[in-house]
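Entry 14. Structure prediction run on the chain below.
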Amino acid sequence: MNIDINALKDIAVKAGDEILKIYHDKALSGEVDYKSDNSPLTLADQASNEVIVNALKSLYPDIPVLSEEEKHTEYEIRKQWNRFWLVDPLDGTKEFIKRNGEFTVNIALIEDRYPVLGIIYTPVLKKLYIGNVLEGAAIMITDDKKEHSLKVNSRQTDRIAVGSRSHKSDEEAELLEQYGVIETISVGSSLKFCMVAEGKADIYYRHGPTMEWDTAAGQAIAEAAGAKVLSMTTNERFVYNKENLLNSSFLVLGF
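Output returned:
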């Protein structure tokens, strides 16, 4: 794949360190602006974005970067991209503001409209998740530097779902009942994908809107661990670099 995974790990951790500096400074962490869609933007989003985008452009000048916090390239240009980085510098800004620790740094590599590599780092827990879809390999690296291979549970009965802390829907409850779910865990940000990859949950359904940068890294990790990530509109594998970067509802199945 000619991508330096260790360099990507370092980038994600450095971005996480910048987030934590602001997170632990109560005067700075409370400074919140709002974008045109009313989603919150903090100094931490901006600091993380600067670390990631500058590093990726320096290491891989020939691979374009599409980040939530950058001016988005027009579709007429990016539709020509066969390969690009898709970045969410701080996924779970609402969780950051609530100070519950459930936010992540997300970096994904997209090839031919699908994620092939995903890095998710959770700065508070100091866990790093890496998924290489082409090799079918997913790992979690804990704070003590130990690597743990990730594989879905493939549970057939008494399934556990993972859902959003900030976004719930009646549609979600109805669908989970169809899959024999007996328990639902609530977690913020892209950690829901990681929980399916770890086998701690079997299913994740999202009815409400997300953007492509919210899901790409998580999809790569979940798929590398054996999960399926399906569009509820097409019932096919979730696809990226659409003209409209807004996602449809989707379903992550670890069985």
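The first strand starts at residue 32 and ends at 34.
Filed with the rest of this week's runs.
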